[in-house]
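A further point concerns the way the authors explain their paired sequence and structure data. Nothing conveys this as quickly as seeing an actual entry. An entry of this sort, consisting of the sequence and the corresponding backbone structure tokens, reads as follows:
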Amino acid sequence: MNGPERVDQPAGTRGYGEAAEQLAVQYEGVTFTEVHRDLHHLYPAPPRSVLDIGAGTGRDAAALAVLGHRVVAAEPTPELRAVGERLHAGSGVRWVADALPELPLLVAEGRRYDLVLLTAVWMHLAPAERPSAMAALSRLLAPAGRLALTLRHGPVPPGRRMFDLPPEPTVTLAADHGLRLLHRAARPDLHGRDGVHWTALLFEREG
């Protein structure tokens, strides 16, 4: 990849590098189908260009590559990225060390994506970071491209930076950047954590 090889570690990734191996067990312990069951039927059919932001260990990126998509996985935490490259070697996923809110490396490439995943990521962005993050996401989406985003609700684990927010502000912010809401769903936490539940949102870029 041309240009800078890394971005500064965002505050929202605090605590993830040290726990990468344990998190890999957690992340890979549920399937792509389980995590995306409420939205998957609205994802574009392969082969399409897909971007998984905050890809973690690459569970979703690898599953989408198996389906026939061309997949880029953006993960700012080096330890998680290394685990993902090891676990899903040969999947065809291209890994990038980039991060919200600006996603400078991906934006500089100028590539547009038909599907962007933001799974368990938006919760790490502070309120002041969200407008620039949504602007970057809009720039990365192709016309009629779709953005799948999940919101985490419930207690924050010790040592992590997370924000619990209702869906409405995110829906409004997305609309301000030309993304219309297509689908909204609620689901319990797949890991059974006390008080934790999720909202899944799917947007489509207009124009």
